[in-house]
Inverse folding.
């Protein structure tokens, strides 16, 4: 029996008086996608941040390849990519520069690879403009280019399709499908429908 | 372009800290620090106007003393070391706002925490960039402020040296307070309340070293103590700042 | 077994356990504290012989020295509790640290005020920048910073952890700050001779001082236990065990 790539064991977490995560447990294998749904305030973002290791649960643990992630957080972080609600971009840098500094801190990138990733998400035309001049949808595309560039085995995505038009959502779908095809795993929190190209192996519904 | 992934390859990726079996080697720490430094310097030069503010503040505070105390150079020379250091302390407090605030706001600080690199090391690189942009110019400006207070030009090299060592310590100590108050609105007064008591030893040794330098005597003893503080700050402050940043991300 | 030796530590982490334990311990420290303080004050203010140099004015050291000593001891307690809370993620440890701060700040203010009152008849001024008073003043700012940082966050967990880190950083810095203040003061020898040095006192004068030191320590423990109980009540107000305990 192969070990799950990502496993959550009875995660319990309180924010102040609120019991946000009430015993969340799941196993996610390679090449699988887990969709986390729930109403606003149900704890989707909190769950993603706990899986990342940013938040620490009061009880329970997160395992990657059978090992507790807290035993070696830097190694775990090296193998994952987390995209939150806002695209993590500096407004005063161009899209290209943002990718260069953001992903360059994590892995060696060739300029050709950078340009290929930008072309992939349809950003080639405006990648030399400062991010402060871009629309919300364009910023999200740049963030997706970072996903394409990084090749992390585990993706944790929070509402990846926000602000994107139909074409942009197709790009998300294609990227996610490729990730699954090459054996990566995805945890995506969204209350919308996943793009057509992606099939969620499991669905986890959080109740507020 | 097809990428094949085998379970063993993906499993091994974790232990070798590479990202995926598609042979994407992770960046070495030095390169990551260099990129962080370069990024912050690039960003600062895109908003050049902001760089002047702490320096203008420093000059302004220095100017307050002749107006408030006396225009006699002899009297000013006597208080010059104290004036220089108080002004430098306040100006560096002002500059601390720019250290982590923007990154915390747009999510890039979070990405640093999730990068797999040592957050301590990356924050150290950011603080070095911050010092190059605020502390070093302050140290280079200090002699001019000193001369406006009646200090002779012979003391200039000594003043610059003491100020360089002192501002390094101040930037690093300030990073702790800046990291602790992340996410707070209007945290200026609190930042001062947190940072100033810990910065007092730097003020004491720095002012004494400057005083001796101005008098033309040997200022090695307080400078050595100041340097010891700077070394302590270099080793411990980024650790504390990284812990504070992680706390702010919880 | 090694495991058994640490169970007391982990049991302390349970709020209901600490709540009950604090209630049981409080009279055991409060009464001795009251007796020692009253007895010590009587011995110091009435019984001890007057100082040949300072006359009756020296008696204020019986309040000043224990207050100053406690202000530092409380800060160390606060720092240790904060470190425990940070490392082992114990919420009650943060409750203890939060409870210590106002007590320590009060001791610091008492030390400053009594120090000032002592100085007036001696030096003729209400304030002197001698190392001890200056260090006490800086310590007051360290306390205020801790309390201010905690107050700046609505989220209790963030306030706890950020405050705890500050307390640990402060604790590491206290020796450095104190040494620098002594160094600074030694450069500029003040013209006045009266210093807050270690008094070489005969036993009749020293004994009440030691009694009061112990009394103040027990007083701190008693007040801390009461405050911790209140702090636990406030933090755990939504928990079930609170309702059961209060109804019982």
């Amino acid at each position: 029996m192969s070990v799950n790539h990502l496993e959550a064991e009875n995660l319990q977490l309180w924010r102040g008086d609120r019991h946000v995560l009430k015993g969340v447990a799941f196993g996610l294998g390679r090449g699988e996608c887990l969709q986390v749904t729930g109403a606003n305030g149900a704890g989707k973002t909190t769950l993603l941040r706990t899986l990342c290791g940013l938040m620490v649960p009061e009880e329970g643990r997160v395992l990657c390849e059978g090992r507790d992630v807290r035993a070696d957080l830097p190694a775990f972080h090296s193998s994952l990519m987390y995209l939150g609600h806002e695209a993590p971009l500096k407004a005063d840098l161009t899209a290209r520069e943002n990718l260069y500094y953001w992903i360059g801190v994590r892995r060696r990138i060739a300029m050709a690879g950078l340009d290929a990733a930008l072309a992939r998400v349809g950003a080639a035309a405006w990648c030399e403009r400062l991010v402060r001049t871009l629309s919300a949808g364009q910023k999200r595309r740049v963030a997706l280019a970072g996903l394409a560039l990084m090749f992390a085995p585990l993706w944790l995505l929070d509402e990846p399709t926000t602000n994107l038009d139909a074409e942009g959502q197709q790009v998300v779908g294609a990227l996610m499908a490729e990730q699954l095809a090459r054996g990566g795993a995805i945890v995506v929190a969204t209350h919308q429908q996943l793009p057509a190209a992606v099939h969620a192996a499991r669905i986890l519904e959080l109740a507020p | 372009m097809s990428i094949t992934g085998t379970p063993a390859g993906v499993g091994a990726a974790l232990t070798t800290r590479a990202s995926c079996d598609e042979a994407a080697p992770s960046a070495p720490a030095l390169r990551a620090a260099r990129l962080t430094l370069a990024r912050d310097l690039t960003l600062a030069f895109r908003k050049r106007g902001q760089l002047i503010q702490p320096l203008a503040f420093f000059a302004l505070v220095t100017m307050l003393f002749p107006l408030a105390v006396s225009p006699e150079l002899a009297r000013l020379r006597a208080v010059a070391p104290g004036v220089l250091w108080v002004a430098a302390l306040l100006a560096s407090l002002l500059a601390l706002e720019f250290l982590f605030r923007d990154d915390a706001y747009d999510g890039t600080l979070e990405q640093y925490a999730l990068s797999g690199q040592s957050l301590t090391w990356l924050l150290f690189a950011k603080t070095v960039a911050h010092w190059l942009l605020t502390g070093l110019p302050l140290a280079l400006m200090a002699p001019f402020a000193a001369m406006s207070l009646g200090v002779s030009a012979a003391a200039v090299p000594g003043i610059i040296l003491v100020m360089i060592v002192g501002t390094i310590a101040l930037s690093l100590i300030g990073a702790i307070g800046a990291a602790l108050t992340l996410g707070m609105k209007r945290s200026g007064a609190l930042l001062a309340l947190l940072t100033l008591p810990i910065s007092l030893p730097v003020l004491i040794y720095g002012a004494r070293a400057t005083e001796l330098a101005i008098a033309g005597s040997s200022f090695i003893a307080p400078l050595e103590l100041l340097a010891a503080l700077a070394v302590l700050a270099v080793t411990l402050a980024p650790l504390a700042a990284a812990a504070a940043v992680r706390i702010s991300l919880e | 077994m090694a495991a058994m030796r640490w169970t007391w530590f982990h049991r302390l982490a349970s709020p209901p356990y600490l709540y009950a334990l604090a209630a049981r311990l409080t009279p055991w420290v409060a009464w001795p504290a009251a007796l020692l303080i009253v007895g010590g004050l009587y011995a110091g203010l009435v019984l001890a012989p007057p100082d040949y140099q300072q006359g009756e004015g020296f008696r204020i050291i019986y309040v000043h020295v224990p207050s100053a000593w406690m202000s530092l001891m409380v800060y160390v307690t606060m720092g240790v509790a904060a470190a425990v809370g940070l490392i082992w993620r114990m919420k009650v440890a943060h409750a203890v640290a939060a409870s210590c701060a106002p007590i320590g700040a009060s001791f610091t203010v008492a030390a400053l005020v009594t120090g000032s009152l002592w100085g007036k008849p001696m030096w003729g001024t209400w304030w002197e920048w001698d190392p001890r008073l200056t260090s006490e003043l800086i310590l007051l700012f360290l306390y205020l910073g801790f309390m201010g940082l905690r107050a700046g966050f609505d989220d209790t967990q963030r306030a706890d952890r950020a405050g705890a880190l500050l307390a640990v950083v402060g604790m590491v810095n206290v020796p450095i700050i104190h040494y620098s203040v002594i160094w600074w003061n030694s450069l500029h020898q003040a013209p006045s001779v009266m210093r807050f040095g270690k008094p070489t006192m005969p036993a009749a004068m020293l004994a009440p001082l030691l009694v009061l030191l112990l009394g103040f320590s027990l007083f701190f423990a008693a007040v801390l236990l009461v405050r911790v109980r209140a702090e636990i009540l406030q933090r755990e107000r939504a928990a079930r065990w609170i309702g059961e305990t209060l109804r019982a």
